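Hey, weird one. I pasted the Transport permease protein sequence into the form twice and got a warning about non-standard characters only the second time. First submission, copied straight from the form history:
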Amino acid sequence: MRAYRQLTLAQLRIFARNKQVLFFTLLFPIILMLALGSFAGKGNNLSLTVGVIDSDQTAASKDLKELFKKHEGLKTLEYEKIKTGKEAVKNGDIQLLVVIPKGYEAKVRNEKQAFSLSVYYNEKNLAASELGLTVVNGIIDQYSKDLVGYTPLVTVEKVGIEAMNIRYVDFLVPGIVAMMIMSNNMNGVAGQISAWRERGILRRMQGTRLKASTFIAAQITARLLLNGTQALLVVLIAHFVFNIDVAGSWLSLLFFIILGTLAFMSLGFVIAGVAKNPESAGPIAGFVTFPMLFLGGVFFPISNMPDIIQPIVKILPISHLSSALRETMNLGTSFLELGTETLVLGCWLVGGFVLASYVFKWE
């Protein structure tokens, strides 16, 4: 027990003394989360801005402008000159420009004469332009029906359903936690163990009464403390900066942090056993971890990936770890409902340590 405690403290001191370790294991993921969360945190919200030019300046034209301003899905800006409005469309400041021509009120009063309003849009941003045109057409169509007193036979009853508002930053934070767990335990374990082997530290440990199980238990404990601290820091910073809360159980979150740590540690020991020296351990770990950053649902939803790689993605440990953390933090899913994620991570854990027992070398 004393050897286990001393090895654990020694490993924690190594983490604390190495400034690069502190930066890349603690600060870098937090900086990445803040940067991506700030720039793309509200990326799921589509804003439509419409410019209006009132060349008529009458009561009728003001009524029409009020309809645009009252619409919940539009932000309305007023311009005095058509040239200025067109420049705003070209620059992307607004998606549409509606021009109310001079003589608008007189034409409205003449119900026998139909006329058109000019609407300018950006041809290079068709998605937003088409959506904006649909909204504007709906406003004008309803306004025209009200002018002539038209009563439709069939109407639409709007029934809203309150759904969960999952922002990109809500999706991102659990992925950052999963990325840290993977990086710390695959890159960190592989590099450190291979370096100790080359320097003869492992050989000297083997010559003592130290058991392999004590050595591995100390590594696991130290890295669990590191990963737990990281996860807590990320969640706290995300809470204060982006107003993110853990919807599910903290015990479930802790369970998956422990399970993910063990699964990726086992893979780190495998890489440490395969690598002949510290110089080769880093590239091997990078070769394994780098594709998983993009295929494991850390930054992008797995469902958006091509069908041809879906079978591969669904067996990666990082995809199930990020999914379990996301379900727990964002949706509050019960631990009992995450059996698939638990089973897959458990298989990687057992399979990794079994393989590591065959390839691991003390010298």
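That's the output from the first submission. The warning seems to come from a hidden character in my clipboard, not from the data itself. The chain has a mean pLDDT of 79.
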